[in-house]
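Milestone M4 deliverable, item 7.
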Amino acid sequence: RQMHGGLLDTLLVLAGCGAERSHLEEVVRLGLLAHALLFEEMRGLSFDGPECADVTEENWKYSAYAGLVRLGLVSFEDVNCMRELQGKSQMMWVWLAHFVRAMRRQSDMALSDQDMQLVLRWLCTGRQAASTIVMLMKTKLPFPYVQLVAFIVQCTHFTIALACGCKAIRYLDDGLPVSAVSELIQAVLLAIVFQALLDVSASIADPYGAHITDFSFLALHANLAAQCRTFIAAPPDH
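Output delivered:
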């Protein structure tokens, strides 16, 4: 949300200050590229292997950047400039700051010092949001903690099975077979529920994966791109 808001607020100020359409489109491209690179990094795609070296018009289809090139978000010059650097999603916000400063110097748009401070603040907010996401997703729980949770769940299974088994035997001795069967069913269902919760917690730990329950990159990308196009659309003449 903060990444999207930082980009859209930046477009709002730049468009209101009379920035050229081509400059606004470049800001949109870099913002969408930062969003796409964040998803790619969270999904574990490596951009620094030998297959990424010297990306050209002949071999770009075999590089890790092929998807971004097809979306029109990255050029070969961009790829060769950032391929050996870390934190690429955050680096795009730095590029945005450089581009906005250069755009202010070279154009005649009415971007005041106060507006520039707002833009830089929103760009910093976007970078901080990307940094927070990377930190949260790449800081894994220590292995002993994971083993402890799994061990507690297994102990719970054993305890439930033992308790329900004792009750079932007592019901059988009392001539209550229906109650005995219900205890056995309860033991099975509780074990399934606890194990299912453990599996669900593991599956939703990384919402940036490729599972059907994870965030949809294309849906979020298309929504953000549509909002950006709305923000840079030309206003009616008055």
